[in-house]
Amino acid sequence: xxxxxxxxxxxxxTLPEVVPPLASYQxxxxxGAYVYTAGQLPMVEGKLPVTGKVGAEVTPxxxxxxxxxxxxxxxxxxxxxxxDLDRIARVVKVVGFVASASDFTGQPGVVxxxxxxLGEVLGxxxxxxxxxxxxxxxxxxxxxxxxxxxxxxx
Length: 154
Hints:
The protein is an alpha+beta fold.
C-alpha cells in the first residue's frame, strides 16, 4: 500500500473504484508531467447520494462533504493513470463547480471540502491554486463537481 493510501486509511477513507465516464471522455489523462482529471461527481458506489442545488435542496455542509467525495474520486482517477499516488509531486490546481440556488454565494466554502481533503491526505503536496464557480446545473443534478490537475514524478 502506498503512503498516500496508508494516510487515507488513517483518515478512515478508502480509495474508491474509478467512476465510469458519463459520456465520451476519460476520467483522467496524462500529458508530460501532469495528470488532468475530468470533472468528478460525488458518486458513491455508482450513485449520487444527494441531488439538487446548494442553498436550496442541499445545505452548504452537505455540499462540502460531497466535495470531499469528489476529491477522493479524483485521486482514484489519478491513480488509474499513474498507478501509484505516491508519484504525486503536488496538486497544482483544483476547480470546483457548485450547482447553486440563485442567492447562494458560499461556493468557496463548499469547495473547501475538496481542498481540505487533499491537504489532509497529501500534506504540503496538496496545497494548490483553485477556482470555485457557481453554476445553474451540473450533470445528473449533482450539487458539486471537482476536477484536479496534479504534477507527477517519473
